[in-house]
Amino acid sequence: MKEIRVLIADDSDKTREIIEKILQYEEGIKVVGQAGNGKEAIAAAERLEPDVILMDINMPIFTGIEATEQIMSRLPDTIIIMMSVQKEADYLKKAMEAGAKNYLLKPFNTEEIINTLQNTYKKEKDKKQQMEKIKEKKDMRSPKSIAVFSAKGGVGKSTTAINTAIAIKKETSKKVIIVDMDVYFGDICTMANVEPSITMIELIEEMAMITTDNIHDYIIETELGVDILAAPKKPEYADYVTVEHAKKIANLLKEDYDYIVFDLDNKFSDLNLAIMDQVDLILYITTMEITSIKNAKLGIDVMKSLNYASEKIKIVANKSDENYGISISDIKKVLERDVDFSIMNNDKIVINSINKGMPIMADSKKSNVTESFRKIAKGIK
Q1: Distance (Å, rounded) from C-alpha 152 to C-alpha 134?
Q2: Which of 37, 204, 248, 345 has its CA 20 to 30 A from that of 330?
Q3: Which of 233, 286, 231, 229 is nearest to 260 (CA)?
Q4: Who contacts 83 (Cβ-Cβ below 8 Å, separation ≥6)?
Q5: What secondary structure letter does DSSP report for 11?
Q6: Domain boundaries, the chain
Q7: Does residue 161 contact residue 190 with C-beta atoms inside 8 Å?
Q8: Topology of the domain comprising 4-134
């Protein structure tokens, strides 16, 4: 059985020490950290990603209920067991509404805390496995298509597209293709260190004959684990790609791939709009620069005017670094909506990966950037 990783959050040093002593001798349970207030609990949860948090309901800075709400919004698989001396039904109800899975009344004995922890973990794990089985059956032939877009160039759109595609492959082990729809100046093959022998232009020339049986003749298989449909080799070929071509390509790929990632250019062209109309999700990329945020606001307004559902658009803050003088909160205020994902700033790693033709997610080294892409993949899979 997998070791249960536990975080203890209580403003009483003595209580934390007692609980840790109880748990440290129990086989299959490991205490990975402690927190003395709600703010520390949130930070420790994000840093340690424990399986279970034993959370006191009354803590300073953020209460246990407030901390639970924030943790569940960021780490929804975390199992939180609320601890309190209060046994009123109202407290229990609030804890459960915040996302807690169980409740421990203080004072508790060794048997109570261990049984509650183990039983709650097993129950939630079994429930999750059952839900995943149901979802697998439901998604057996439910391909998901994603467009990566920005209204401004130079924001890391293609970097996000290729690394998100690889991250999805690693998270799901399913069939993933990235379609380079930046038809004038596509960079996906360069980033993957691939010299395309065939592109979508050759596919379009034979479009009347293309079926799910032969479309793979025009697709590049890579060592990255994801396939590529390459953009035209030269800008002068771009105008050969029409809206109807794009729609047919998208429909054909859905027959054979579980995830299709479209890397679009930075214009609201008919071609891009045709793709955005069809996809399930749009990753809208901005950076921490005021000009990029301004363009993101304008771009989102355009999407609203096109009646795109708010939940279809996911905002990605690339090069996230508050040292630039702009915070995620500032972006939220300007865009008047949440930032769904952020990619940590690390120019050295990113630029080196591009120059080597080895996407960050294909490298075995872990970093804050790879973790960012992993979270995006988990959030959209």
Answers
A1: 40
A2: 37
A3: 229
A4: 10, 54, 55, 56, 57, 64, 103, 104, 105, 106, 108
A5: S
A6: 4-134, 139-380
A7: no
A8: Rossmann fold (3.40.50)
pTM equals 0.61
What letter would DSSP give residue 239?
G
Could you tell me the two tokens for 31? 């205490």
The first and second tokens of residue 241, run together, are: 């790609």
Confidence of residue 264 (pLDDT cuts 50, 70, 90): very high
Give 116-176 as a DSSP string: HHHHHHHHHHHHHHHHHHHHHHHTTT--EEEEEE-SSSSSSHHHHHHHHHHHHHHHH---E
Among 208, 268, 278, smallest CA distance to 247 is for 278
SS3 assignment, position 312 = helix
Helices 243-254, 270-278: inter-axial angle, 10-degree rounding: 30
Question: Is the per-residue pLDDT at 381 higher than 80?
Answer: no
Spatial contact of 143 and 254, defined as CB atoms under 8 Å apart: yes
Give 194-204 pLDDT, tens digit per residue.
888 888 898 88
Q: Is 323 helix (H, G, I), strand (E, B) or coil?
A: helix
- CATH topology match: 4-134 vs 139-380: yes
CATH of 139-380, one of 3.30.470.20, 3.30.420.10, 3.40.50.150, 3.40.50.300: 3.40.50.300
290 pLDDT band, cuts 50/70/90, is: confident
Residue 193: how many other CB atoms lie within 10 Å:
14
Pairwise CA distance, residues 320 & 224, whole Å = 26
Tens-place pLDDT, residues 350-378? 787 777 778 888 876 777 888 888 889 88
**Please, where are the H alpha helices in the chain?**
13-24, 38-48, 64-74, 89-98, 110-138, 157-172, 188-191, 200-205, 243-254, 270-278, 290-305, 328-335, 347-356, 368-380
Q: Collapse the DSSP code of 380 into the 3-class scheme (helix H, G, I; strand E, B; otherwise coil) and give the result.
A: helix
